[in-house]
Amino acid sequence: MGAYVDVQALVALQYSARGFSIRSRKRVQSMLSGRHTSRMRGQGLDFEELRSYVFGDDIRTLDWRVTARLQEPFVRVFTEERDRPVMLLVDQRINMFFGSRLSTKSTTAAEVAALCAWSAYAQGDRVGALVFNDSEMEEFQAKRSRSATVRILAGIARQNQSLNANSRERSNPGQLHKALDRLQRIARRNFTIFLIGDFDGTDSTTSGFMSDLARSNDVAVFLVRDPFDENLPAEGELIVGDGRLQAELPFHRGAFREKMLKASRRRIGDILAWRQELQIPVLSVSTAEDTAPQVRRLLGHINARPRRI
Question: What is the total count of domains within the chain?
Answer without folding.
Answer: 2
